[in-house]
Amino acid sequence: MSTLWQMIVMKKKDDYIDLLVKFDHPDAGPFPQDKNFALQLLISEAYDFGDNYQRIPNGSLGEAIPHEKYLPDDLDELVDTYIKDVLIYQAENLPWDEEEAHEKMDALCIEDGVDEDHEDWDYTWQEHWRDFWKDYNRIPWAMYRITMTDPKWADHLKKYQEFDSAGFSTGSDYVNENVKIEVPDPSDISDYLSTERKRWEDTLDEIVEKTEDSVTKKSLRNLWKIIVGSKK
Questions:
Q1: How far apart are CA 10 and CA 144, in angstroms?
Q2: How far apart are CA 139 and CA 8, in angstroms?
């Protein structure tokens, strides 16, 4: 089953968890806003692999729900036991139009001086496409606040943990336009991005410290400046 969504745990507080959910596949579709989908997201990381590669619970939710129960029909009768409410309080870069996104990739290639007849067209196009999926200013994303019946249902998740899901909804409650709703203590995507940047800076510092060649050190520093510049 293809991965459709990527999640980042933005906050865990009292009885709710904030998840940043972004497209991980062009076919992901509008963002579902129902309890069943929220439960699917929470159980995505509720199991580890045992010594014989069998799935074993890694927290309260995994212990309560068998790993075999992961499809919407399996969870329908369980959702109210675990999920009290779900709200998308911010969504950006919607509605999603894949054809329009492809046209923008075409335009970027042409700006690079590479037209469709050029031998580097496919390579250049894919490079821009990969960059697109890393850019929160362009890809569709939504901030979910999932209120649980008990905080322990998220005890297997930690702040800034990243994971993915092939979850989908059979309901009718979707968000397919940009929204911003006031909620108490909202999560800010810039907090995560600055933390990630600091993590990469620290990693680079460690690599540079272990590098004895001064030319290599300078090259690594210059490479980081290029990477940071491309993300602005």
A1: 9
A2: 15
